[in-house]
Sequence to fold (215 residues):
Amino acid sequence: MRKAYAIFASQPGRWFLFALSIAKQEFRAHMFNRTGVVHSCGYDIHRSPRPLLHILSFLTFGLPEHIGYDITFTYSCPIPQPLSSSSKVDLGMISVRSEIYTIIRRIFYGFLLCSQATSCWHVKRNNRNYVIKDAWTHEGRQFREEEILKKIKGVEGVPHLVDAWTVEIGGLQDRTSTHRSSFPSSDNEVRVHCQACYATGRYSHNRFHAYLRTP
Fold:
């Protein structure tokens, strides 16, 4: 669990983590995502070499989206700690729908493994500053954040919402149940991958930081 936590913390662009552990003569497969973890039974390395070979081949040659990487998010170097000063190098890119934004710095990141896993990013596009909020919200949530913001649009102190969407991969909504479809989940356990983009305008990043940390 600690190693899975460390991987999610150091690689913000992850949907899930597929891991392999070996103890004595047994190996097990592990599937981590934002709703929890599933472990396989133990298999003897010598008696079940073919499944082990399949797993190793999959982890080595699988496409990034098949082994857990979020293809809407790419980064080219280690991400600075939250609230660090803006980087002088290109940290990577985030795409919201068809728009691509350059990452300037990470403002906030929720480090809990089984959670909404909110991350907030100071980004730029066409020399304009924006803040992107990326989170895994509950499937059964009655009101979405963008719906509330649209109703209170124009109120002083409320960030201007540029765009919001449920991330789609191959025309399908990105859900935790999609990545772990072999295991049935209740609505309370399913989380949906959502992104929202805000224009900074005259609001400071500190103000966005305080707002965007709210679940």
Notes: Helices lie at 2-10, 49-61, 145-151, 176-179, 205-212.
